[in-house]
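From: lab user (bench 3)
To: helpdesk
Subject: output format question, protein + LLZGTKA7

Hello, I'm new to running complex predictions and I'm not sure whether the block I got back is the full result or only part of it. Here's what I submitted:
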Amino acid sequence: MKRTRLIAALDTQDLDQARSWAARLDGHVDAIKLGLEFTYAQGLAAVRDVAAERTLFLDLKLHDIPNTVAKGLTSLAPIGPALLTIHASGGAAMIRAARQAIDAAYPPLHRPILLAVTVLTSLDAAALRETGIDATPRDQVLRLGKLAMTSGADGLVCSAEEIAPLRDALGESPVLVVPGIRPAGSAADDQKRIMTPHQAARAGADWIVVGRPITQAADPAAAAAAIQAELAGI
Ligand SMILES: O=c1ccn([C@@H]2O[C@H](COP(=O)(O)O)[C@@H](O)[C@H]2O)c(=O)[nH]1
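Helpdesk reply: Thanks, we reran it on our side. This is the complete output you should expect:
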């Protein structure tokens, strides 16, 4: 069985905090995630600083017209992320433009994994309906997942609930990155479609993304190590 890898989401506006978490988690996580909160507060130079010598999941969830997304991804090339996100709901032309931009702007040996976010893990069926989408999260994830994979994405961001249906529909090739992960007993916070690290790994996640259960723990390194032990024990 493949190993499910752990990404720690370093969600903070503070550079020293991000540096400190990253250093404490070295050796305990497989990658770090920096996203909107950190990048808007500190800028891309700080992203480079924290990500230096580490595997970076740069989760900026681009969602715009095709030309703007393509140019945005091109601008991110000097950062050297290992994984990048766009929104699948931006449509086929946007995803194709993202694919072309990555193939053109990133050296072949350093091409990031292009991930399409399907349905945010903070949305349940009722919240999805409020956006005008009268489908279950599962069906909407499948629809967007198929669209993204046939338009050039390398993988998908989904909840653990959708891993099995996505594998049934699309096989093993999509890289599945799964947030909404909560160790047993931890608070769900604003996440709606959640599973434990063990459940996500059993379902076939390639990567899980864990933020607050690690960063808000009294000992973040110990929290990450406990999750790794849970992943290793599947
Ligand atoms: O659907 C999505 C897409 C991205 N995320 C990101 O994952 C982490 C989760 O943090 P927690 O503190 O473990 O809830 C966060 O950075 C989100 O931006 C997601 O949760 N769901």
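A quick orientation on your result: The chain has a mean pLDDT of 97. Let us know if anything else is unclear.
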